[in-house]
Amino acid sequence: MTAAAPRPVLPPEIFLRAEGLVRKFGSFVAVNGVTFDIPRGKVFGFLGPNGSGKSTTIRMLTGLLVPTAGTATAFGGLDVRRDTERWKSRLGYMSQKFSLYHDLSVRENLEFFGTVYGLGSPQLRDRIDSLAARLHFTRVLPEITDSLSTGMRQRVALAAALLHEPELLFLDEPTGGVDPRGRRLFWDLIYELAAERGMTVLVTTHYMDEAEQCDTLAFILEGNLIASGSPHDLKASLCDRLLEVPAGADPFAALARLRREPVLEDAYLMGLRLRAVARPGRTAEARTLLAPLGAAREAEPSLEDIFVSLARGRAEKKEKVAA
Amino acid sequence: MKRLLALTRKEFLQLRRDTISVRMMVMVPIMQTMIFGYAINYDVKHLKTVVYDECLSFDSRELVAKMTASDYFEVVGNVRSLAEVRQTLDAGHASVALVIDREYGKARHRGTPARALLIVNASDTTTASQAMSIAGGISNQLSVQTLAKKAGWKEKAPPIDLRVRPWYNPDMRTATFIIPGLIAIILTFTLIQYTAMAIVRERERGTLEQLQVTPVTRLEIILGKIFPFVLIGIFQLTLIVLLMRFLFHVPIAGSVVQLYLAGLIFIAAVLGLGMLLSTIAKTQMQAMQLSFLFLLPFVFLSGYVFPIDGMPLFFQLITYAIPARYFIAIIRGIVLRGASLAQLWEPLAALTGFTVLIVALAVTRFKKTND
Ligand SMILES: Nc1ncnc2c1ncn2[C@@H]1O[C@H](COP(=O)(O)OP(=O)(O)OP(=O)(O)O)[C@@H](O)[C@H]1O
Ligand SMILES: [Mg+2]
């Protein structure tokens, strides 16, 4: 009946557009109207505390979960709900939970998923071998998947998601439990594929150093997307509000006192220094407040600072609404 | 098609690693056929009998001899008093006692009723009723002979000659009756559980989700799960049929092809039930427990062990809802009576109807729960 509905055409530089995505489980709203664009060939990072709705959003974007409301468009005009089959054949997905067959060997797993994506045998074999070499798991190809270490499993799972050379890749906490060397292997490959093949990536992570490398970041909190931008831009929003002073003789007393100050949004210890975040537009007052402790200087905010600040700002807004 | 093949191959690869399950799939049919074929035996033979012969005459010995000749009774002792009879039965050394009246012989010659008493341990009703009817038969035979002699018929046959011909199972062997029905029970026992667990395991492990982001369609996922188990079902069916035919020597009177045809329909029903269970069970453990829930009514209310005609009306009504009931009726028809599917159209229609219903329900529920 809506056969003649005009297809929303994306601007050429946008690869994926999510508009007003909502997902309810019963009366619980897990994702509450999330909207964002991911440009082609870019790595988009999704940050947020546990249970904030990151995985649920990804599951809607893969076509696994039907959104309660909202749309997702990608691949130059496909709609996730209308063109589900074609949509699925062009994306790769690595879920938060390891989800290859435990009782098959690594090679059997990769062969199975490759075949399911329609790959023929000589091509499939080549791709398995080259991904295994690239991610350093050739040695474990004949082993039963169940016997692999966490780091190895994640590499194999990434390979499984990349076998059919997807244009869009979803990674849900891909590096949980992976050692630094493994994480390096991982990200090197992902950035290479993004740069060389124009693969678009959406990744969730709790590692700030990984988030730092993303082209764009989005913060999601209780199902709401509360801020997005490049890591640099996001930090800029906090730049002139983050002050640092020497901790002094009794840092804990000082910290307790600062935390009660209405001028400050947050205060915490960073090694031997005390850091305070002024409320927007009240940096001067904060400086005066900190003066007895020593000369305050502006500090370079980390993504963690942004994260905490955003979460706190939201919580306070909520309290105000409630009051 | 290629994807379906890949799914099937994957299922068998997994199965190959799961050696315990593979062994179970072979051993369960063999063991159950052995147990039900050999151990469960309603044929009453060699009932331990104690004799208290007060008469001690030619006639009384003739009666005892007739009874032991039937193979149903085996004299394990002679006693000299009723008290001893009681003691032997109480102790369980015998389950039947034959007490022959002091006047038995004389009465027979006089032509007045000759008295003998058969005491039966009726705790086991099946045994008791068989013992009683056999003993009754023997005594009738003896009286008729006497009457015939009196009437001057000499050795010739008495006027009424009612002969009993047990058709379809001429030796009245329990195995002949039990094993065809066992096909239904074994398929139920293994297939519901394996299908349900195979699906629940994929959901638990997250592999079902991984499959669902690939271009594989729902129908392919379902078929890919069902197809290997149909093959396993056919394998088990073959195994039991071979055991039945060559170990227990139960001849298949009807068409083997029709037997397999009905078997396939029943396998589909059972797989559907397994799938239905997988949509309810959250864990493999629950899937296993739930499958036992089906097993009980399938065994006891399908006519497999207890004849449906003997059940109270309420339970008789329930049996109509149990697909195994129809399948058992069909196999017994084909194997024992040589009936064709055309003759068995009623249970066949009911079985097919149930299968379609179950599979449709399972598929819709499967689609819903995995959304
Ligand atoms: N199938 C479901 N049924 C009911 N509630 C669900 C379901 N899936 C997710 N939720 C709820 O939705 C909320 C968001 O979950 P989600 O998995 O998207 O969080 P997340 O941001 O990925 O968290 P984490 O960092 O822990 O992975 C949680 O409160 C979760 O309990
Ligand atoms: Mg998650």
Concise structural overview:
With 323 residues, chain A is of the alpha/beta class. Helix content of chain A is 38%, strand content 26%. In chain A, α3 packs across α4 (121-134).
- Domain count of chain B: 2
Low-pLDDT stretches of chain A are none
The biggest sheet of chain B amounts to:
4 strands, mixed
Succession of helices and strands of chain A: EEEHEEHEHHHEHEHEEHEHEEHEH
Detailed description of the structure:
The complex is a heterodimer of chains A (about 325) and B (about 375). By secondary structure, chain A is α/β, with parallel strands linked by helices. In chain A, about 40% of the residues lie in helices and about 25% in strands. In chain A, strands 6-7-8-3-9-10 form a six-stranded mixed beta sheet, with helices on both faces. Chain A has a four-stranded antiparallel beta sheet with strand order 2-1-4-5. Chain A starts with 13 loop residues before the first strand and ends with a helix. The longest helix of chain B is centred in the middle third of the chain and has 32 residues. Chain B is about 65% helix and about 5% strand. In chain B, strands 2-1-3-4 form a four-stranded mixed beta sheet, with helices on both faces. In chain B, helix 3 links the parallel strand 1 and strand 2. The complex binds adenosine-5'-triphosphate and magnesium ion. The site of magnesium ion has 4 residues of chain A, from helix 1.
